[in-house]
Amino acid sequence: MSNAVRDNSSFDDNEPDNLPDSSDDGLGGGSDGVEGVGGDEGDGDGDDDDGDGNDGGEDDDDGTGDDDDDDDDDECLASVTIAGTGGGKRRFWRKPNGAIRIRAWRPNGRPWGKRVLVQADQTRESTPFDAVCWGGNFGFRQIRLYYVGKDNVLEEMTRPNGGRWRKGNLGKSKYKVGKNSSLLVIRTNGRTRVRFTNPRGEVRVAVSGKEGWSLQKPPKK
Question: Biased-composition ranges for Acidic residues (predicted)?
Answer without folding.
Answer: 10-24, 38-75
